[in-house]
Amino acid sequence: MATTADTIIAALRSGHDELAALVRDLGPTDLTRPSGADEWQVSQVLSHLGSGAEINEATLEVALGERPALEADFNKQVWARWDAMTPIEHAEGFLEANRRLVERYESLDATARESVRIDLGFLPAPVDLATAAGMRLSEFALHQWDVEVAFNRWATVAPEAVPLLLDRLAGLLGWIARPDAIADRPVELALRLSDPDRSLGLRLTDRVELSELPEQPAGEIVAPAETFLRLAAGRLAPEHTPETITVTGPLGLDDLRRVFPGY
After folding, report:
1. Three-state secondary structure string covering the chain
2. Which tens digit of pLDDT belongs to each residue from 14-42?
3. I need a labelling partner for 38 at 20 to 30 A (CA). Which of 1, 2, 134, 263 fits?
């Protein structure tokens, strides 16, 4: 059954409320800490989320007929403005921009949630609200972790987002994975996830893709779904790896980290 826009919007709301509660208490020193995103401070993650919220709200307004089509350089203008902000302004701007975006999603009635089609600018055709909001959730939930892990090394991706992100993972592997990292060792692994429970195959050949559970896998990955999501997103460094993940067979966890370098 397809994920509904309602479920995704609810996850965006809870994620915003949780992250906003943390961000409101951060001072200048906190905002310049290294985040879970390589080479980004906490404030830079908030800048990315805030500018993304502004762009997403604008594309939604265009789809609703509330503003004309965006200028060709609209995104670049938004990014430049956010890049010029101070860390405190990043935090304050994120709180405002993301609140507005979530409230706009929430304000849409059932008819609009079903009928609106949004041109994101980088896909071949406009998409429905569930797809657009789902892409925002994939971005938001992982960057929420990037901020939270700066203050809690055992932070996890928000539980309400995990099954929703897991459902989107197959479509992302083609561009987030680097199969050339193990080009001389093509394998098919069993992938046994929990919370939610999933039994799948992970095929690593000239491309990386999910498949049906293989009858004779070369090895096995057993992990909570949240942990595997962070592995696939390049967010499972040794210091953030729980003991609940095990990898057996011809590839080790370090091999998989190279296949999934992050984005």
Report:
1. CCCCHHHHHHHHHHHHHHHHHHHCCCCHHHHCCECCCCCCEHHHHHHHHHHHHHHHHHHHHHHCCCCCCCCCCHHHHHHHHHHCCCHHHHHHHHHHHHHHHHHHHHHCCHHHHHHCEECCCCCCCCEEHHHHHHHHHHHHHHHHHHHHCCCCCCCCCCCCCHHHHHHHHHHHHHHHCCHHHHCCCCEEEEEEEECCCEEEEEEECCCEEEECCCCCCCEEEEEEHHHHHHHHCCCCCHHHCCCCCEEECCCCHHHHHHHCCCC
2. 999 999 999 999 999 999 999 999 899 99
3. 134
Q: Which fold has domain 164-259?
A: Nonspecific Lipid-transfer Protein; Chain A (3.30.1050)
The domain made up of 5-160 is a member of CATH 3.40.50.620: no
